[in-house]
Design a protein that fits this description.
Blueprint (H helix, E strand, L loop, with lengths): L8 H15 L4 H7 L4 H9 L6 H10 L14 E7 L4 E5 L4 H10 L6 E5 L5 H12 L3 E4 L6 E4 L11 H5 L8 H4 L5 E5 L12 H7 L4 E6 L2 E6 L7 E4 L5 H12 L3 E6 L5 H12 L3 E3 L5 E6 L7 E4 L4 H13 L3 E8 L4 H9 L3 E4 L3 E2 L6 E8 L23 H10 L2 E6 L6 H5 L8 E6 L2 E6 L7 E3 L4 H13 L2 E6 L11 H7 L3 E6 L1
Parallel strand pairs: 2-14, 3-13, 9-10, 21-22
Antiparallel strand pairs: 1-22, 1-23, 3-5, 4-5, 6-8, 7-8, 10-12, 11-12, 14-17, 15-17, 16-17, 18-20, 19-20
The protein binds uridine-diphosphate-N-acetylglucosamine (UD1) and phosphoenolpyruvate.
């Protein structure tokens, strides 16, 4: 067996795997059976045309009783050492959103032409969906500068080769149902996973997709889907929850069928709007974008070469504004999608935040309105009323955790009411480790009393994306040294967050055990 210096790492690893398999006298089909995957997936792995997770490499090692590459099944976790209490200054730019990227990646399955997604954030959640797409035969390639993704699906998807490991780590796999149901009469998908936020039911998705003829039974870690033949008659969908991904699933199902679909109680949130703009490029007609009633005229066969710029992430914008606010700094957060931050800014204004907005300009998708926001050091006071999230146009559910931290910097009592997630508020009590007065009134309500005299501490990173970032930002406010242990979850939704905060003047060092 030879691997050449010119080989890419995946090609070299694929060659090693082929050699070890042949040494064992196994066919590709036999190795596939040992790994519960398909022969075509093994062929792609051996050609170096499929991304490999560390878990998959470990399973291949075990299946071949080999040690092809010394792989630790649990890579060493990353920690951050933060020297807090330093003012930040300068400008930081908001990246494109995780939630739009995952929806657009799933929607690309509808298109038999070439999709190019521009300005995709390099985050782990994107990597996971990309790995899943590649495992079913979709050609997904990053541009040389690493900013754009080219996606070309094969005529027939290899759903039996699906990368279970990657799929089970993301909740977004649930969004494969919508695009697939117009294309496959029966198929299987692994169960959806995601952050530790408490129970998140998928029932609203099933309710939303039933009018399209989808019938799903769930058995031992898999969803088994059967789809009735589409009669072409108009479909009326009433969502029981105004959820973002459930709206996206219904939209994708509607986009992939001839005829009209009406979706009521739809989420008009930012990622849904991004998805609508992309679907329009594919030739799908959608009335009511940005409202709760969507009227869709789809196309059973879509074959279009399109490019779409993913729009800016309001949750990252909120995270970066919070960095400035809690460190008492003057910073500018550039490219904020203002339609999705207005309520947050109104609440912050009531709390005494001083900020200015630049004139509006248009995002590269040609649709989203952007502004640059400059925050100045301010004396914050607790709001009179509780702070609670609502589906858009309300205060964004993912922005709520940042208000617990801002409330801890404000004078007075703030009640934070997270009615949405069973487990997210609990993670915010970690702020007490850094000196904040945060009391859990019940699993959904926090009483925060400020202002806080922050002090450095060592904290294990909460197993949830936004609370993890909240603790990091609190450490930047706390004089002295803090350590945040096991921060890998942050990369699920933020690209190079620590490095970008360092550019603003934060003192953060990354280390491993
Ligand atoms: C990939 C993606 O886009 N993820 C976002 C999406 O997840 P996603 O759309 O998956 O959110 P879920 O369906 O899990 O909804 C979140 C929670 O809100 C509840 N619920 C939601 C809407 C409603 O009208 N009533 C109601 O009770 C759900 O039961 C659930 O407990 O929306 C969440 C809520 O904004 C965000 O936190 C996630 O970042
Ligand atoms: C909960 C979140 O996302 P997801 O739906 O990807 O878990 C989040 O972005 O905070």
């Amino acid at each position: 067996m030879t691997t050449t210096l010119g080989d890419t790492p995946l090609v070299a690893i694929g060659t090693l795997i082929r050699g070890a398999r042949q040494n064992k006298g196994l066919t590709q089909a036999q190795l596939a059976e040992r790994l519960s995957t398909s022969q075509s997936a093994i062929a792609r792995i051996e050609q170096g045309s499929q991304n490999l997770s560390v878990d998959m490499l470990a399973r291949i090692n075990a299946a071949l009783e080999a040690d092809l590459l010394p792989i630790s099944s649990s890579p060493r976790p990353t920690h951050l050492r933060v020297s807090g209490g330093h003012r930040l200054s300068g400008t930081i730019t908001v990246n494109s959103s995780k939630n739009a990227a995952v929806a657009l990646l799933c929607a690309s399955l509808l298109n038999r032409g070439r999709t190019v997604l521009r300005g995709v954030a390099r985050i782990v959640e994107v990597d996971r969906i990309v790995a899943v797409l590649q495992s079913i035969g979709v050609q997904v390639t990053w541009s040389q500068d690493g900013r754009d993704l080219e996606i070309i699906r094969p005529a027939d998807l290899d759903l039996s080769g699906i990368d279970d490991d990657a799929a089970r780590r993301t909740r977004s796999i649930i969004m494969f149902f919508g695009p697939l149901l117009g294309q496959e009469p029966t198929f299987e998908l692994p169960y959806a996973g995601g952050c530790d936020l408490g129970t998140r039911t998928v029932e609203p998705h099933m309710i939303a997709l039933r009018p399209f003829g989808l019938d799903v039974t769930a058995t031992s870690g898999e969803y088994h889907a059967r789809v009735a033949k589409d009669t072409g008659a108009p479909v009326y969908v009433v969502l029981t929850e105004r959820g973002d991904t459930v709206t996206e699933n219904a939209l994708m199902a509607a986009a992939g069928r001839d005829g009209e679909t009406v979706i009521r109680n739809a989420s008009p949130n930012y990622m849904v709007q991004d998805l609508c703009f992309y679907l329009e490029l594919l030739g799908v007609s959608i009335e009511g974008i940005g409202t709760t009633t969507l009227r869709v005229r789809g196309r059973r066969v879509i074959e279009a070469d399109v490019e779409y710029h993913v729009s800016e992430d309001p949750v990252e914008a909120m995270s970066l504004l919070t960095a400035g606010i809690v460190t008492g700094s003057e910073i500018t957060v550039a490219r904020v999608p203002i339609e999705f931050m207005e309520i947050e800014l109104a609440v912050l204004g009531e709390m005494g935040l001083r900020y200015t907005l630049s004139p509006e300009y248009t995002a590269l998708n040609g649709r989203t309105r952007l502004v640059d926001i400059t925050v100045s050091p301010s004396d914050l006071k607790a709001p009179i009323d509780k702070i609670h999230p609502m589906p858009f146009p309300g205060l964004n559910i993912d922005n709520l955790p940042f208000f617990a931290l801002i409330a801890a910097c404000a004078t007075g009592h703030t009640t934070i009411h997270d009615w949405v997630y069973d487990n997210r508020a609990i993670h915010l009590t970690d702020l007490t480790r850094l000196g904040a007065d945060v009391r859990l009134l019940d699993p959904h309500r926090l009483d925060v009393t400020g202002p806080t005299r922050w002090s450095g501490a060592e904290v294990s990173c909460p197993p949830a994306l936004r609370p993890a970032v909240v603790i990091l930002l609190a450490m930047m406010a706390a004089k002295g040294t803090s350590v945040l242990r096991g921060v890998d979850i942050i990369a699920r939704g933020y690209e190079q967050l620590a490095d970008r905060l360092i550019e603003l003047g934060a003192h953060i060092e990354t280390f491993r055990d």
